[in-house]
Amino acid sequence: MLLQVDLAAWRQEAKDVIYLDANATTPLLPEVFEAMLPWLREGYANPSGSYMAAKLARRAIDEARGQVAELIGADPAEIIFTGGGTESVNAALFSMDRLVEKGTAVVSSIEHSAVLRWVEAQPRVVTRVAVTPLGRLDMTAFGRALNGAAYVSLMAANNETGVIQPLQEAAALARERGIPVHSDAIQAAGKILIDVRKLGVDMLSLSAHKFHGPKGVGALYVREGLSFKPSMLGGGQELDRRSGTENTAGIVGMGAAAACMKRANHQRLGEMRDLFERNVLQRLTGVAINGDVSHRLSNTSHLSFEQCDAAGLLILLDEAGVACSAGSACMTGKQKPSHVQMAMGIPETQAKSSIRFSFSCINTHEEAELAAAAVKHAVEKLRRIQGGGVGPVVIYSS
Questions:
Q1: Which neighbouring-strand residues pair with 357?
Q2: What parts of the chain have a pLDDT lower than 50?
Q3: Is 330 tagged catalytic?
Q4: In the prediction, which pLDDT does 387 show?
Q5: Which of 2, 194, 271, 280, by CA, is between 20 and 30 Å from 116?
Q6: Global pTM?
Q7: Which domains does the chain have, with CATH numbers?
Q8: Could you say which of 260, 308, 330, 361 is catalytic?
Q9: In DSSP terms, which residues pair with 163 in a beta bridge?
Q10: Which residues contact 24 (CB under 8 A, 6 or more apart)?
């Protein structure tokens, strides 16, 4: 009962919150919730069963598989459902690591911890390829790293800065040498057009809750004909590629969210983000946009504020009803700058003053303007408290 009372109070309070942390997670869209609801109630049968209720669950999963495949230009048979993005990443890396005996693991220096922590926990030598000051993969360094490589894992877009990586170009270089390529597209899916055929990747990871689906469900694309070694053994579900009883409701929700993202207006997201940034830059000095503004997800704004620390800004913005984060949600609350900003060569003081604002389809242009006003007041208040001055506007762009 106490939990219900607390949730009711939070719902009332949340009505006035401007949610700008979509790169951490997104709310369920109403149509996604409605699609899931029957499978949370009466559709509880195990989809591996032989009776009618089970066959209906299996049919629902197959339909969702087709919806997810369509989102990334794959065939339904190439989609494996998992328990989330981290599992999808780990499963891909496990398979490549076990199937390719010799060579190094090649990753970028700005990969998500789901990639970096996994590869560095293995006995294989790992090569972290540098990025440019704008946060894009250094292609010259990548080309050199391919010498003696066993496999490659490169993100499609960075979760902190939103910078889109030259994945197609990198995959083509690896393919020339017969090196398998996995991509963590968890932050990119649903925000930019993804076509696995054009990208030329062998495996690609997705997570439903990053594009308005439920948490606890993800997918892994495995190119047809590619050898695959499962990391989870058991009942042989997902064509023996990922054992474990399928989460029917979650999978249906992921499919519904994928279908919604096919119809999404990404231009509108970019308009809101740009409106927000223009307002902030016009009202404040000493602001930096981190990352390549020419190759960015349309929803992401990663800003640094001179003479401010991110922790203080987050408190003030939370009090003002703006929900955002200091870079990756995995790093919020930690005192050290993120490895992404360090890899880009951003000075530590600037890195510690960085905030990530990430929009989604639930936001409005009015919220973008209100959020910019809240940022202005928070930054000015913190600068007064800390007794700092202001400096010139610095914009990192190509």
A1: 301
A2: 1, 329-333, 388-398
A3: yes
A4: 73
A5: 194
A6: 0.92
A7: 30-262 (3.40.640.10), 265-395 (3.90.1150.10)
A8: 330
A9: 296
A10: 325, 329, 358
